[in-house]
Model the fold of this input.
Amino acid sequence: MATTIIQQPLYRMLAADEEIIFAVENSTIVATKFKVKFVAKLYVGTGGGGIFTQTKIATLKATPNNVGVGIFDFSRILESYVSPDYLGGYTITSGTGDHFTEMAGVSFDTVPHSIHQIDKHSLNRKACRMFGVKFHIEYADAIDEAVVNTSSSPTLSETYYIHNATRQEDELIGFEQQRGWFGYNYYWNDFVMLDVNGKFLTNAPTTQYVSENDYCTLAYFNQSDDKVGENSLLGNSIGTGGVTRTIVKKIRISFYNQSSVQTGAYLDYSNDKLNGSLSWTTASPRGRIQYTGVGPANIRNNIGTVPYNNYGDWLYYTVQAYDDDDEEISQDYKFYKQEVCKGFEKIRLTWLNRLGVWDYFNFTKKNVRKVNSKRETYQQIKGSWNEATYIKHGHEGGTKTFKTNSKEVVTLQTDYITEEAAAWLEELFTSTDVFVLPEFTTIVAQSTAGPSSSVSNIINKYIQPCFIKTSSYTRKTTANDKLKQYTIEIEMSHKKRIQKA
Done:
């Protein structure tokens, strides 16, 4: 009798930190044999063949429980195989060669850049992986006999996907009562782009604020599903007329003036390999989640200074996904031009959100920088004791600083924000990955006599790591607090470099 999978995830796209439970049984073997163990071989990969041609990363064993079932939770292993996407880079190989993300029209293999600086699209590199499990059973015919291994006839799971997301305990989880299968339904929560309710992978409000030189990306699931109903990828359900697979064909950006009249032609970023993307043709997890550069600085890098100036009087612009029938398949995200009051410094933060991609916010009010220093001192002897004569110099003697450890701390303050934005900013306060993201400036190339004709000044230019020092976050509401304004404190991760004595 074959080993049977009796419990598995309800849907096939899973957050890496949620419980990823499989249960298997083989009632005949458990009842009649000795030294019984269920065996699970776990495979993880990025595509280029079926899941069981990928790398086997672990072999686990489980003793049958009191009802003869073996239960496995793979989450603690799988979560180490996904991580944030920090950089642009290689996207896809086609008949025309390898394709990379671009910044200001220059390929990543020529000028490396962060994921935030991409001109158009980027597939994910680390945020999503595929996995599958082979199950079999081992046993002995008698207590004193050798173990028989049945790995030559395994039971194979479906192909599943994990992405670098977290699942909160109060989030609603779909539960199939008869078998106990459970999972988070992305379709039900509108993270599948099928119609105008579809959302990008963010909990941010659909109205946001950007300055003219800000970078920003939006990430999303690149396809609605590859099947419907039970064991679907993202939780699509079958309606009266069934569900047709929807493909994100392009992202459209449209500018509007002070009278909310569209200015100039809209920009269509088609999902094409030349743009760092693809029209859906593969099961590779690298194409399941995609990023698009939608900030004013990304747009400027993409279409150039002169075309950008045609939209100089814009009040806001919209970002929306479209399918191959030119139908809207996402909500309309509005980005309003944000002016910074005279005398204030704007500081833009980007952080890893709970869906495993990046969110952004500008702090535009009283932002205060200070440097905290910790000094190590020593007592220096006065005078020259190793010379022919003793000479006393004024710079010698007394307490001296041997080493100074200095870090910059910045106190940030928001403008007045909505209750929706206040709830969303909790993700910033709890994120493990936070960066200061400086705005666009022209990249000046240096001439060089080396193997390259020029060197671009981009290292350390755009991404500055920091961490949140504020230890508590009080979510404010309109009823309790009326206008809502927040102050947080960040510390820059890198020390200021200072000479030692």
